[in-house]
Amino acid sequence: DHPEVKEEILRKDDRLLTLLKDVYVESRDPPVQVKDGGGEHLPCKQEEKRLTKLGHLGALDVKKVSKGKISIVEALTLLNNHKLHPQIWTAEKIAAEYSLELKDVNSLLEFFIPFTVQEFPKETKKAIKS
Predict the structure, then answer these.
(1) Is 97 buried (19+), middle (13-18) or exposed (0-12) by CB count in 10 A?
(2) For residue 50, what pLDDT is reported?
(3) What Rg, from alpha-carbon coordinates, does the chain have?
(4) Using CA atoms, how far apart are residues 77 and 71, in angstroms rounded to an integer?
């Protein structure tokens, strides 16, 4: 907004221009040296991650897991869902929902069965004397 500042910016200084013409700069990159590490330090393929379905633990829940894996909370949830509603929570649906392989889900459902805690009513009968 100040015309005198704009004028000062646009004005050329002949003395500085002649000094700049005398300056010569040469720049070269150093030669590239290839270290033979045998491929030991190649960047590894980054794993695909997915957001987890959070449980009731809030801040303690795992937020991201690699595809093909599940968190403890998710494992317990899917096992319980399958136990309560096996027609709805089929192995195929679980595999799609949690990005798992079908054979892994089938193994999980076969070998990991959540147990049920049952409380039996207290008996009011006296103990039988031997």
Answers:
(1) middle
(2) 63
(3) 35
(4) 10
This prediction has a pTM of: 0.48
Burial track 32-68 (b if 16+ CB lie within 10 A, e otherwise): eeeeeeeeeeeeeeeeeeeebeeeeeeeeebeebeee
- Alpha carbon of 84 to those of 5, 16, 41, 70: distances in Å? 78, 84, 49, 20
Q: At what angle do helices 102-111 and 72-84 cross, to 10 degrees?
A: 70
Comparing 7-11, 13-17, 44-48, the range with the smallest average pLDDT is 44-48
Bridge partners (DSSP) of residue 51 are 64
What pLDDT score does 127 carry?
A: 57
Tokens of 88: 């709805």
Distance CA 91, CA 104 (A): 9
* Amino acid symbol at 35: K
| Domain residue ranges of the chain, discontinuous segments joined by + | 70-116
**Within a 10 A sphere around the Cβ of 119, how many other Cβ atoms?**
5
pLDDT value of residue 29 = 82
